[in-house]
Design brief:
Blueprint lengths: L23 H9 L11 H34 L2 H7 L13 E2 L1 E9 L2 H12 L5 E5 L7 E8 L2 H13 L6 E5 L20 E7 L2 E7 L6 E7 L2 E9 L6 E4 L9 E6 L7 E8 L5 E7 L2 E7 L6 H14 L23 H29 L2 H19 L8 H18 L7 H14 L7
Helix pairs in contact: 4-9, 7-8, 7-9, 7-10, 8-9, 9-10
Length: about 450
């Protein structure tokens, strides 16, 4: 029996394979070649990655260009302080700190009241010397009259000898080192030939700017505008190279100092100084040989002597009627008539002046010995003189001298006080120096 033939199985296209026949040499060449990527860089995933990477790079470049452009605008348009606040490397100081040192002053007198110290300072100024007053910082405060300040001990000693020749035997040297070791900018500084040396000194309630000139100047001119003080000093033999400094930290009376040559004039070459100062600072310019001093002080209240004089004039012009006085009121000191008041005042204080002249040598010797009996006897005499001075009202023209005389008596009494812990002899000499320098009129 014949068996029908079996149909062969049909192979689908997914199961069909291509057959490549290779000889041994072709197979060797194929195996030596590495795999080669197909369609590199054109797959969907690679295109998107390249797009994101390109976007980031473009954004970074744009931001960088924007920052550079903004920085250029700030650089050309912003003032220097704004630059210093934006960039950390601009916060360093652009000028060196002023050189500082100790100052030397001369203490003329230590007194109980500011008026008395002011009168003593006035006497020092009458000798052509710079003078000021201060309150001592210790517990027992005194009002001191002082001369100076000066940059060197030699200057102060010359002034001390001059004051002693003028009768102020109690003059003593006072050294202020408050600015000697202040922090400063450690920037390299040199003084070009012909430039002045500049020094800042600290003194009680003031600072002094000192210019050490190469030659003694014949002219010193000053001008002051808002926040700036200018000096022209000269004439000089050579021009000055521009320099500038900043004040040390904690100094508020000056801020910056700059020097340069002023434009040449028919009077010769001059140094020009620019000093940045606050509006409240008071300034005084003085010349001492080759040194030019500019003293800066804090503003002070008007002296009390002004109101005292005004009250005395009012009391002399309008004396209070006796009938209007309150019952049991203390008797007021007699008011000297305006007519011939100076003569009457001189006659009233003549015994006081004569008595002080008489006891002067005894006062000095008593202060030296310290004998309690002698001190007590002289203090009784001075107490009587003090009471007499209280009973005399001076005319307005003699109010300062009267206050000076009162300060002399009270200063002498302090030297005789058993509880006085200072130098009795120096205190007595100061009192007598004030007495000799007073200008109280004792003759008509």
């Amino acid at each position: 029996m014949l068996t029908p033939a079996k149909k062969p199985d049909v192979v689908g296209p997914e199961k069909q394979y291509a057959v490549v026949l290779l000889n041994e040499e072709q197979l060797q060449q194929l195996m030596q070649r590495g795999p080669r990527p197909v369609n590199r860089g054109f797959s969907v995933r690679d295109v998107h990655s390249r797009y994101l990477r390109l976007k980031r790079q473009t954004t970074a470049v744009a931001i960088m260009l924007l920052v550079v452009a903004a920085g250029g605008v700030v650089w050309f348009m912003s003032p220097r302080p704004a630059m210093a606040s934006i960039f950390a490397w601009k916060e360093t100081a652009d000028a060196p700190t002023l050189s500082t040192g100790a100052s030397f002053s001369v203490t003329v007198a230590s007194l109980d009241s500011s008026d008395s110290a002011g009168f003593a300072a006035t006497r020092v100024r009458s000798l052509g010397l710079p003078a000021f007053t201060r309150v001592t910082p210790d517990k027992n405060q005194f009002y001191q009259a002082m001369a100076g300040p000066y940059a060197t001990l030699d200057e102060a000693e010359r002034v001390q000898r001059r004051l002693m020749r003028a009768g102020m035997a109690g003059a003593r040297i006072f050294v202020d080192e408050s600015l000697r070791n202040v922090p400063r900018n450690e920037l390299p500084t040199t003084v070009p030939d012909g430039n002045p040396a500049v020094l800042l000194l600290g003194a009680p309630d003031r600072v002094s700017l000192v210019f050490e000139m190469p030659v003694e100047p014949r002219q010193v001119r000053s001008r002051r505008a808002e926040g700036l003080m200018d000096l022209d000093v000269g004439p000089l033999q050579n021009p000055v190279y521009a320099q500038q400094w900043v004040a040390p930290e904690g100094v508020h009376l000056i801020e910056r100092v700059a020097i340069e040559s002023a434009p040449p004039s028919e009077n010769g070459q001059f140094l020009r100084v620019h000093i940045a100062v606050p509006e409240f600072a008071r300034a005084n310019v003085r010349s001492e040989g080759k040194r030019v001093y500019v003293d800066f002080t804090w503003p002070m209240a008007p002296a009390e002597t002004t109101s005292t004089r005004a009250n005395l004039r009012m009391a002399s012009a309008q004396p209070r009627p006796a009938a209007a006085a309150a019952p049991n009121a203390p008797t007021a000191p007699p008011v000297i008539a305006n007519v011939q008041e100076d003569q009457r005042y001189a006659e009233a204080i003549r015994p006081i002046v004569d008595r002080l002249t008489e006891i002067k040598p005894f006062l000095i010797s008593a202060a030296q010995s310290g004998s309690p009996d002698v001190l007590k006897a002289l203090d009784g005499t001075l107490a009587s003189l003090d009471q007499t001075l209280k009973s005399v009202r001076p005319p307005a023209a003699s109010a300062d001298q009267h206050q000076m005389l009162t300060a002399v008596v009270r200063g002498a009494r302090r030297a005789l006080d058993p509880t006085f812990g200072g130098d009795r002899q120096a205190q007595a000499q100061q009192a007598m120096s004030m007495y000799e320098s007073s200008t109280v009129a004792v003759s008509p």
